[in-house]
Specification:
It contains 9 helices and 20 strands. It has 427 residues and is α/β, with parallel strands linked by helices. It folds into 2 domains: 68 residues, Alpha-Beta Plaits (2-Layer Sandwich), CATH 3.30.70.80; 330 residues, Peptidase S8/S53 domain (Rossmann fold, 3-Layer(aba) Sandwich). Helix 5 runs parallel beside helix 6, helix 7 crosses helix 8 and helix 7 runs parallel beside helix 9. GO terms for molecular function: metal ion binding; serine-type endopeptidase activity.
Length: 427
């Protein structure tokens, strides 16, 4: 069961999870293809045995899913496909982050009166004075006083999070891009920026997140270039499920993969809330809703798909010109010139739906905290198999209409209205 109580130590409990072989194209001198193997009768052991017997190597034995990720020799692919122990196989392809359209350095006066945007060399006291990003105010997060995300676990599936950033607190994490799963810091910047939008600390410097007291978990599934395999993303989902992480944030996009879709459905059925960026494929801003250029997994029916919004004074329609659109869009959120934490103990403005999705993740954390007592029993176990559905319904019901078209889904996420709705449902 998913728990809403804060875990002091959340470590992966499955002994079958193996180190990822990201990027491996040869094993024992033979060219091998990355694939997902589904066993006959949903037997994971049959799938693993078939991979091994045909000269392959299992990369992941998932704890919560009944298939495996493996590397299989090119010449043995068809042999595996027709093996009676195998239901079907699927290509494990490369996936990447939803690349921001702009990364802007932020210059501000720091607290010592010197010009600069970083506190890395001078330590935390030299960081710039705290300011709230425009999106924080636009979604009325500044009006929320009764919730800060306390006790809610948020998994950031991304490039990692800078662990010693002065404006972030990372409880724990894991890394599926190398054999060292304990190295889950960020050397790209994207994951750290996403994490800050959700939960930058409410202190006297830098910036502040939507739900600053949420418990952040750095789940590194993308390497320094922002790339990984779907099998790594699936491993991240698997780890979050086993670790009791309620909300999973993914600013990631790629082509449809049925195995990943199955994993997301399993996570959803187990009560986890999955929030995804819609993608940065652009749009016509004409309200026609004819475009269908969203990336997977935002297109999955069990995720909350988030499109990006401009600052009010930058666009007549408020819709970010970079944002992908489609019938699967659930919510709109600020995505343009969003200020947040960055690697090097720094701060940056970035633009993209990667920045929009964590706004919704943060609001979901506020609502989850507010609803907490109604979602768990005295032992902290979930009282329902679908607490995530309750949270999602509140987010959609309380959204603000700003476009009046299907481009925005249910509308712009609104923190204050969502928390108020949660309180109303409790009374």
């Amino acid at each position: 069961m998913v728990q809403t109580t804060r875990r002091n130590v959340l470590k992966y409990s499955g002994s079958g999870l193996l180190a990822s072989l990201v990027g491996a194209t040869t094993v024992s001198g033979a060219a091998k293809q990355p694939v997902f193997i589904h066993g006959a009768n949903n037997s994971q052991s049959h799938a693993a045995a078939a991979a091994h017997d045909h000269g392959g190597a299992v990369v992941y034995n998932y704890e919560n899913f009944d298939f495996v990720a493996a590397r299989v020799p090119n010449k043995a692919i068809e042999d595996v496909r027709v093996d009676k122990r195998v239901s079907h196989i699927e290509q494990d392809s490369v996936v990447s982050l939803a690349t921001p359209t702009e990364i802007g350095q932020v210059g501000k006066n720091n607290r010592k009166g010197n010009s600069g945007n970083s506190g890395g060399s001078g330590g935390c006291p030299s960081h710039p004075d705290q300011r709230t990003p425009w999106g924080y105010d636009r979604i009325d997060a500044d009006l929320v006083t009764e919730a800060t995300g306390t006790g809610v676990n948020v998994g950031i599936l991304d490039t990692g999070i800078q662990l010693d950033h002065c404006d972030l607190t990372v409880d724990h994490g894991t890394n599926f891009t190398t054999e060292n799963q304990n190295d889950y810091s960020d050397d790209n910047g994207h994951g750290t920026h996403v994490a800050g939008i959700v939960a930058a600390t409410d202190n006297t410097h830098g910036t502040v997140g939507i739900a600053p007291d949420s418990t952040l978990w750095s789940v590194r599934v993308l390497d320094q270039t922002g790339s990984g395999y779907w099998s790594d993303i699936t491993a991240g989902l698997d780890w979050c499920m086993s670790s009791g992480i309620e909300i999973i944030s993914m600013s990631i996009g790629g082509s449809y993969n049925d195995s990943v879709a199955t994993a997301i459905s399993e996570a959803d059925d187990a009560g986890h809330l999955v929030v995804c960026s819609a993608g940065n494929g652009g749009n016509n801003e004409d309200g026609s809703c004819e475009e269908e250029n969203m990336v997977f997994p935002a297109t999955h029916s069990s995720t909350i798909a988030v499109a990006g919004m401009d600052e009010d004074n930058q666009s007549d329609t408020f819709l970010g010109e970079y944002s992908s659109l489609g019938t699967a869009v659930d919510l709109l959120a600020p995505g343009t010139n969003v200020l947040s934490t960055y690697i090097g103990n720094d701060y940056r403005q970035m633009t993209g739906t990667s920045m929009a999705a964590p706004h919704v993740t943060g609001v979901a954390s506020l609502v989850w905290e507010t609803m907490g007592a109604s979602l768990t029993d005295e032992d902290g176990d979930s009282t329902t198999a679908e607490p995530n559905d309750k949270i999602q319904d509140i987010l959609l019901t309380s959204a603000e209409t700003v476009l009046g078209t299907c481009e925005e889904g249910a509308g712009l996420v609104n923190a204050a209205a969502a928390v108020d709705e949660a309180v109303t449902r409790l009374n």
